[in-house]
Each structure stands twice: as C-alpha cells, then as structure tokens.
Design goal:
Blueprint (H helix, E strand, L loop, with lengths): L1 E5 L2 E8 L4 H14 L4 E11 L5 H13 L3 E4 L3 H8 L10 E2 L2 H9 L12 E6 L4 H12 L4 E10 L11 H19 L6 E8 L15 E5 L7 H13 L4 E6 L11 E5 L4 H13 L6 E10 L13 H14 L5 E10 L2 H11 L5 E4 L9 H12 L4 E4 L2
Parallel strand pairs: 2-3, 3-4, 4-5, 6-7, 6-9, 7-8, 9-10, 11-12, 12-13, 14-15
Antiparallel strand pairs: 1-2, 10-15
C-alpha cells in the first residue's frame, strides 16, 4: 500500500491487506496541522481490501471521534464501504463523501467553536423551526444597541453517523437560511451578522460551541421541544444556567411584529424593562402603539370567593408607579389589572388565554432561582402553548 499526500489530500494506492493506520495517522497529522479545517482521504485507488485491512477504518474512526478531527473519506468503492461498515466500531459512522469537491465544501462549513469579537455585545439565534420570527423580534428589541448578531445554522446528526459526515442537502439549506438571516438583520440597518454552521447531536447543543459568559441566546420552541414530560427539566435548566444567558421565544401563534399591538406581563420590579421592550417593538410596527396589560395577581384561599378580593394599598401604589413610569414612553398605553387567583401561574395563564394575549413577556429576576415565581410562570405559559411567549433575563 502506497500513501501519497498532496495539498489537503491523502491518497491510498494499491492493496490494503493489513491495518495501515499508524502510517496513515502520521500522514494525516501532518496535513491537519497545515489544513486545520480538515483533510480528505482518497480511497479511489485502492485495488483490493482484505478483512485485515478494514481495521484501518476502525482505528481511523476512533481517532476522528476522539480528536474531533475533520477527516472525510472519498471515492470509496462499494466493496470498501461494505467491509468497513461491517467492521466493529465503524458500522455506518464512517464519514464519507462522493467526491473531493463535496468533501471540501462540507469541511469549509465545519466550525467546532465560535470565536466572538472582543468588546461587543453578542446575540445568537439558531436557524431551526421558527427562527425567522425569533430573529425578527430579537433585532427589533435591540435595534441601535450595537449588537453583533450570530445566525447559527444547526445541522443535527444522528448517533449512527460521524459528526463530520457530509450532509449535502442539509448543508445547502443551511447556506440558504444563513443568507436569509443576514438579509433580515441588515434590513433593519444593523451591519454585523456573523454566519455559523454547527454540527450537533441535539438542537440545544449549539449553545456550547460559543464561549461562556460572552453571548446571549434566543431559542425558538424547536430548540427544547414542547413536551412537558420529557423536556421540562431541560428548559428550566437552560433558563437557570449561570455560564450562558439563555432566553426563550415561544413562537407558536406569534403575530408578525409589524402587527403586534397587545402585550401582557406581570407587574413586578422589571416593569420598566418590559415597557422598554414594548417601546422598541412599537417603533418598528405598522401601528406604533402597543397596549400593555400589567397583571397584579393576588392569591385568594379556597375558603373565599375570588370576587371577595379587593385592591389593596399595594395595588394603588403600583398603579401610581405605572402611571409615572409609562409617561416616559410615547408608544405604549399601560393598564394595571387587578387579578384574584387561586394559583399564581395557572391563574395568570387562564387570564392570558381568555384575553387572547398576542405576546406575554416574562423577565427573570437576577439572579434567577429554580423555584422563583417567574420560572414557574414561564413553564406554565410555555407548555400550555396558549400564547406567544418571550422569557428573557434582565
């Protein structure tokens, strides 16, 4: 067996009748230093392969997995593929491309970790189902604040495939989505939108390709799913992370931001931030006025009728505060709503459903705690799916 190297390619020539991985690894290591994005192993000139030679592919796959190495095999005959995939430790996971051009294109999109510009505020949105709405709202909320936006095309690979396996159709779609994302961001006059193509096992894994503490994420529903039984803990854990700032946008039923005219929230210490969000959204809408309903929930024990509850001094103080703060915003009309409830979260959710809320905003406290009212409310609203929902950190 002859091993030739040229450019980014290792070519194997002749009969593979034994495990040649030690020699092949040495050649691959040299090329990977010169071509860190990845290299190609061309099998088109292998004339014959024996069962002993298939051990080469088992060792190669272990190396690729352990090092997360960008290595793709090309031009392998059906016999080579059949024998390689019949080898313990390889099966269907061998990263294969039809030809060198397909492999190079796939490797050019490979990005193991994201590098962020220094001294900038960064916001990342994964380009999965619902991303257009999430990104549209995200840019409107932060327009003019000199954010660097990161559009992350997410290619999800099953465990049966190598993480570096070429996915031509998915890669082509990723490139199209990335161009659309850049156009959307630039359409608002924002000048910096970075493009990333990230290969992951689960949609939410794209988060961990970014540096800790340096980026805010806005996840559409598809990143965490909508089944409470299986995903509830994951959603809560994402919102509670201290090393990453993860916001959530439940886009189910969301109106186009140009048509948004009605927002609901809970009156608490973050009411000013909610007003700022509404003001930012209203300025880019067709009708630059948003009606904001701030709920003032009051728990009522089961021994009393809900109608027995009456506004207290706290409510009237909140009403006075809202009038003072809202006078500084030109594009929102704020109403404080007294709301007797049996249960804090389910009572608020019932109101939101009856009121046909267009968008509910929950701003988490800082630091956020696992058993806080905001987390419980966010979970109730998200999994009930009764209205579009924005859950964000301060």
């Amino acid at each position: 067996m002859i091993i030739e190297t040229k450019g980014d390619t290792v070519t194997l020539i002749g009969v593979m009748d034994k495990n040649i991985w030690p020699a092949l690894q040495a050649a691959a290591a040299v090329l990977l230093r010169e071509h860190p994005a990845g290299i190609i192993i061309d099998c088109g000139s292998i004339t014959r392969i024996t069962p002993a030679g298939t051990g080469t592919f088992a060792d190669a796959f272990r190396y690729i997995t352990m090092k997360d190495a960008g290595i793709i095999f090309v031009s392998a005959s059906e016999e080579i593929i059949r024998l390689a995939r019949a080898t313990e430790g390889v099966r269907s996971k061998m990263p294969l491309a039809d030809n060198a051009d397909q492999a190079r294109h796939s490797l050019s999109l490979r990005e193991n970790s994201v590098k962020l510009p220094e001294g900038k505020s960064n916001l990342a949105v994964p380009l999965i189902k619902g991303w257009q709405t999430a990104l549209d709202y995200a840019v409107r909320l932060r327009r003019g604040k000199e954010y660097v936006y990161h559009a992350a095309a997410v290619i999800k690979l099953p465990l049966s495939l190598s993480i570096s396996h070429p996915m031509p159709a998915e890669e082509q779609q990723a490139e199209k989505d990335l161009e659309k994302a850049v156009a959307l961001v630039e359409g608002f006059g924002e000048t910096v939108c970075k493009k990333h193509t990230l290969r992951v096992r689960a949609a939410e894994d794209f988060i961990f390709r970014f540096p800790k503490q340096k980026v805010r994420f806005l996840l559409p529903d598809a990143a965490v799913g909508t089944e409470r039984q299986n995903k509830g803990l994951m959603l809560r854990d994402l919102l509670l992370r201290r090393d990453y700032t993860v916001d959530l946008f439940s886009v189910r039923g969301a109106v186009h931001p140009d048509k948004l005219n009605k927002v609901t929230t809970v009156y608490d210490g973050n009411i000013r931030k909610v007003m700022q969000d509404c003001e930012a959204l209203a300025k880019t809408a067709d009708d630059p006025m948003i009606e904001l309903t701030a709920l003032y929930p009051v728990p009522v024990p089961g021994s009393l009728e809900l109608s027995a509850a009456v506004p207290d001094e706290g409510f009237f103080a909140a009403e006075k505060s809202i009038k003072s703060v809202s006078s500084r915003f030109r594009h929102i009309k704020t109403n404080l709503r007294f709301l007797p409830v049996r249960n804090y979260s389910s009572g608020i959710a019932a109101f939101a459903e009856k009121d046909n809320t267009r968008l509910f905003i929950v701003i988490l406290e800082d630091p956020v705690y696992a058993h806080s009212k905001q987390i419980a409310l966010a979970m109730e609203l998200y999994y009930s799916g009764i209205c579009p929902l924005l859950v964000r950190h301060p």
